[in-house]
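Name: TrkA-N domain protein
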Amino acid sequence: MESHRKENYDRHHHKKPWGISLPSLNFLDTLRRDNRQFAVIGLGRFGRAVCATLHKLGYDVMGTDIDERLVAQVITDKIASTAIQLDSTKPIALKEAGIFEFDTVIVAIGNFIEESIITTLNVKEFGVNCVVAKASTEIHGKLLKRVGADIVVFPEYEAGCDLAYTLTKPAILERFDLDEENSIVEIRIPEEFDNKSLAELQIRARFGLNVIAIGDGDKYKINPSPLDRLHKNCAMVVMGSNRDIQRLPI
Ligand code: ATP
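Structure predicted for TrkA-N domain protein:
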């Protein structure tokens, strides 16, 4: 990889400013419960997308915004169970709307930094267990963490990185970052692996990667044996360091 491209790759790939650190996994138990109720504060494009998707998945979701037209639109579009107009910088307004009773609150106010910080502080101070906040810049993200946000997301940044990966490595279909250096990726099997067995390809010895599943077009075989053969245009799932994954001929 040319050095400037490698630097970019390292910067974006190894230093993800969002995500959940291993020590804070406890609160993920909240995310696993089925009967969870969500409140989304801020009904811009991001907030509406969160509302609509949670609602489509069958969850109870309340949408709120300071702008009553956006609240009315959410009701018209039927993308939330309820929607209320309120100023989320006012704790009393949040209390009256029952926001503090929700176990997960998404603060989807990206562009109004002060409002976003105050809102996050309010919902955390009044005991909401899981608060997800959208950040527009790195410093905004740091401030959100400081005031207690459990998860900070950078949707534009994340979408930009994903697009760059897709454009430069279209063979990577899915990726799951384990930490700053290691990932699990689902990749399209390259031409030069076609009809070769794992034993012949020596992927662990040559690339330092573990193949954890191989696809046959329909289904995945988990923990494949060394005799299993790979087929081009099918997919496989490998785990290893990002550096080693980059060395695959894809
Ligand atoms: P995107 O479409 O990317 O989500 P946007 O410009 O639509 O961006 P933001 O500017 O991040 O959204 O704001 C999201 C919403 O937050 C806006 O609809 C805005 O009215 C709302 N909002 C801003 N301040 C407050 C507040 N104090 N209380 C409640 N809602 C607020």
